[in-house]
Design goal:
The protein folds into two domains: 126 residues, Immunoglobulin-like (Sandwich); 212 residues, Tetratricopeptide repeat domain (Serine Threonine Protein Phosphatase 5, Tetratricopeptide repeat, Alpha Horseshoe). With 417 residues, it is of the alpha+beta class. The two termini are 27 Å apart. Helix 4 packs antiparallel against helix 5 and helix 8 runs parallel beside helix 10.
Length: 417
């Protein structure tokens, strides 16, 4: 994932040399200050950018609710409820054994349980600092751009907007969040050929998985090789063999194993993404493009149209597939296609897992002369990866843009259906 950022920053794609010769635009004249208005202290007009003296009845202290499946089946034990405001995860809590949850907003504390939450201080328009400091909650106006959703592997979640929350008590029950079990075409998640494998091949494969989980890679390799020797169409075993070979830096052998997995079942997508990753490292952009197109064409759950983080039963990272596709299109000069895939990757990478995506989007916006958009992406990269390997170069490029007094970014282009 660091390779593209190096290519972009080292080659000067992000900030062309001609920029340095471009004189900065003149600063606009300062706006004329309006005449002061004398307003009684007990009748202060509302300003969206200033703290307001909200009463306690305007504040939300707790959000409660539940999660249920659309088919009535039991929930997994690790369901997270996420409060997302302006596309950033602000709070996370686990549901209890009965599927219920209670989210405490009173202390303004970030109840993030993993690195996916936004740990920066939450600043909401209209928040009264004194009441927040007293642990009295969040004004409902500050929740206008927020929603709640569930995050759990193998399911996609409905969302519940908090824009209509009307606090009648300190605790507001938002109702039930419904999650939908992921389903795929036969053979994509459940490989039919795998069920035809002889029992001794299945035993060897399961032993290999146990050894792999224990970190005994040579032993796992031996068992996976035994499984595919008994049953050459065992796509899962070929893929797992490729994984352990790759971890032992046997890249050529790993590539051959991934290719055998794809030959055995072209709808089993993890080996295809693994091959795309290897091609990305080798800068074989045409190969990357072909492999990622294969993945996205078989995206039967249509992840490109799903808001938020979703993990399917293949454990396949679709945001990474879109990122590779965008990178390949960019390096081949197909800027419009690169932007489309990059925006899809950004939409799916809510956690976020791929900071380099922001550098790619900055380069794409630069190519389209959207310098304000490039600045926005560089700032986001530095926010989520302040100590990344590309952070010094990103700061330098951002400083150049800021000195040029580049205009603010225009409205984002809508992601095509």
């Amino acid at each position: 994932m660091r390779r593209l950022s190096g290519l972009i920053l080292a080659s000067g794609i992000l900030i062309p040399a001609a920029w340095a010769q471009k004189p900065p635009s003149p600063s606009p004249p300062p706006p004329t200050a309006p005449p002061p208005v004398s307003t009684p202290r007990n009748n202060v007009p509302f300003s969206p950018n200033a703290p307001q003296p909200y009463s306690l009845t305007d504040l939300v202290l707790y959000l409660s609710g539940s999660v249920k499946t659309d088919d009535g089946t039991p929930l997994p034990s690790n369901v997270l409820i996420e409060r997302v405001c302006s596309a950033r995860i602000r709070q996370q809590v686990y549901v209890d054994t009965g599927g219920g949850f209670n989210m405490d907003l009173g202390t303004m504390a970030q109840q993030t349980v993993d690195a996916s939450g936004d740990s920066s201080a939450e600043i909401n328009p209209g928040t009264n600092p004194q009441l927040a400091a007293q642990g009295q909650g969040i004004p409902r106006q500050a929740l206008l751009n927020c929603e709640l959703r569930a995050s759990v592997a193998g399911f996609r979640s409905d969302t519940i907007s908090l824009s209509n929350v009307m606090p009648s008590a300190k605790t507001v029950n938002i109702g039930a969040i419904v999650v939908h079990r992921g389903e795929k075409v036969q053979g994509q998640t459940l490989n039919a050929k795998a069920y035809r494998a002889p029992k001794n091949a299945i035993r060897a494969y399961e032993k290999g998985l146990q050894a792999q989980r224990a970190g005994k890679l040579p032993e796992a390799q031996h068992n996976f090789q035994e499984a595919v020797k008994i049953y050459p169409q065992y796509a899962y075993a070929w893929y797992s063999l490729g994984e352990v070979l790759q971890k032992q830096t046997q890249k050529d052998a790993a590539k051959s194993a991934f290719e055998r997995a794809m030959e055995s079942d072209s709808k089993f997508l993890p080996p295809c993404l693994a091959l795309a990753s290897l091609a990305y490292e080798q800068e074989d952009w045409h190969q990357v493009l072909g492999l990622t197109r294969h993945i996205l064409n078989l995206d039967t759950l249509d992840y490109g149209k799903i808001n938020g983080y979703v993990l399917d039963l293949d454990s396949l990272d679709y945001s990474l597939a879109y990122f590779y596709n965008a990178a390949a299109n960019f390096m081949l000069g197909r800027i419009e296609e690169a932007e489309k895939s990059g925006l899809q990757a950004e939409r799916l990478d809510v956690r976020p897992l791929h900071p380099q995506l922001r550098l790619l989007m900055a380069a794409i916006f630069t190519k389209k002369n959207n310098y304000g958009g490039a600045m926005e992406q560089l700032r986001e990269y530095l926010r989520i990866s302040p100590n990344g390997r590309s952070a010094p170069q990103a700061r330098e490029q951002l400083a150049q843009l800021e000195k040029m007094n580049v205009a603010q970014p225009p409205d984002r282009k809508a992601i095509p259906n």
